[in-house]
Design goal:
Layout lengths: L6 H7 L9 E5 L2 E5 L3 E7 L5 E7 L15 H62 L3 H5 L2 H17 L5 H54 L6 H23 L3 H21 L6 H4 L11 H17 L2 H8 L5 H13 L1 H18 L4 H17 L5 H28 L1
Antiparallel strand pairs: 1-2, 2-3, 3-4
Helix pairs in contact: 2-4, 2-12, 5-6, 5-11, 6-9, 7-14, 9-12, 9-13
């Protein structure tokens, strides 16, 4: 019996003949796909349907051509990806949970209307009996609890039956509902912005400040052991990153997001092999993909060690006479933050431009191997419903590209 290949070996050996520029991102109960002309989000709603939303991509190359130069384009692509990812997450969060909250409110309103109708009915019956039977000491004062209930129902009936107040109340209720919805939407956006800012701060602390502080304790002052300092710092950064991904991967919501990540890869595999995009056709493909952005993150950490070592920080320390201890450590941390765009630019040129254009090069496999290993942590095997979301998002992007091709052909 032949030994079954791992997802890693299959991702390298079964890479499709049709290479696509379409890439994606896993979301909360959905997938975002980005093409040449637009990006699309497909989210599984609480009622089981798939919500699809797409937006145009506007290229600024005509006005700001310098932003597409080598090295610079990597920084631009990183910033654009973060912004699009933030917008896509906001859309996904709104539709993955929004309808569920609406259904709960509707059920509560229906219960209230039903209870009010019952009270009105009881009051009407009591009024009818009183009109026919007249006053009775035994009936009206022999059961005080029933008497109180009857009075309460009668008061409710009187308030609800004032015709002059109904239109005004409905209008006021509509305005209040609109204000509440707008306030909730604004609060949700503000909440997402705060989460993003806190996430960036946490990322700087976890992956720059903390490794640098620990390295300073282990190795000593930066300018005394520069090479060892950068190596230990880089290894600690990778270790923190891997542990962080493993840790959050234990959370149930993140597990499902990683399943959508796997669905995104399978959908792209399916397209690159020229098959009809269905869950049945996508299911057999590996959940790993050689052009995943995870490789970019790992490459950033590797390139960072080289850039930090080459950068003449020792000359700056000597020139300004920076004292040992906290001032020198603070300068090292600031230098690492300032150099991040350079590192991102170099990493983009290697992983996206060069490796993406030479997938059969043996050296490419060596370079991408760490990132492929990380995909075992960032992807899980998806179900058919999740692959349907990934396929829906990808179809929205591919349909737009077909439409643009047809438009260009007609214009020619």
């Amino acid at each position: 019996m032949a030994k079954q290949k791992s997802d890693l070996s299959r991702a390298f050996s079964e890479d499709g003949a049709v290479k696509t520029h379409v890439g994606g991102q896993a979301l909360i109960e959905g997938v975002m796909m980005r093409g040449k002309y637009n990006w699309a989000v497909a989210v599984r709603e609480p009622n089981g349907s798939i919500y699809v939303e797409e937006h145009d991509l506007k290229s600024g190359q005509d006005k700001n051509g310098w932003m597409y130069w080598p090295l610079v384009r990597g920084c631009r692509a990183l910033v654009e990806s973060l912004m699009l990812g933030f917008k896509a997450l906001e859309i996904a969060a709104l539709h993955a949970f929004g309808d569920e909250e609406g259904e709960q409110k509707a059920a509560a309103e229906a219960d209230f209307v039903e209870a009010e109708a019952e009270l009105e009915g009881a009051a009407a019956v009591a009024a009818e009996e009183e009109r026919h039977e007249g006053f009775s000491w035994k009936r009206d004062f022999g059961h005080p609890d029933e008497m109180v209930d009857g009075l309460g129902a009668q008061r409710t009936l009187e308030v609800a039956s004032e015709p002059a107040c109904e239109p005004a109340a409905a209008e006021a209720g509509g305005e209040a509902g609109g204000k509440d919805e707008a306030a909730e939407e604004e609060f949700g956006h503000r909440e997402m912005v705060i989460s993003m800012v806190l996430g960036l701060v946490l990322g700087v602390v976890l992956f720059i400040v903390a490794p640098a502080a620990v390295t300073n304790l282990i190795v000593g002052e930066y300018d005394d052991h520069t090479l060892a300092w950068n190596i230990v710092d880089g290894l600690l950064r990778v270790a923190v990153f891997v542990f962080y991904i493993w840790l959050i991967g234990r959370m149930e919501d993140i597990k499902r997001m990683f399943m959508y990540h796997g669905a995104e890869h399978k959908a792209i595999h399916c397209f690159e092999h020229g098959l009809d995009m269905t869950p049945e056709n996508a299911r057999p493909f590996p959940r790993l993909h050689v052009r995943c952005g995870t490789a970019f993150l790992i490459m950033v950490m590797v390139i960072a060690i080289l850039v930090y070592t080459v950068f003449p920080l020792n000359a700056i320390i000597s020139g300004f006479g920076v004292p040992d201890g906290l001032p020198k450590l603070a300068l090292v941390i600031v230098a690492r933050i300032v150099l991040m765009p350079v590192i991102a630019g170099i990493s983009y040129e290697i992983t996206v431009k060069w490796a993406g254009s030479h997938p059969d090069n043996p050296l490419v496999k060596v370079i991408l191997w760490p990132g492929m290993q990380m995909q075992y942590l960032t992807t899980n095997e998806p179900d058919d419903a999740q692959m349907e979301c990934a396929i829906a998002a990808m179809r929205a992007v591919l349909d737009r590209e077909e439409a643009e091709k047809a438009k260009a052909a007609c214009a020619a």
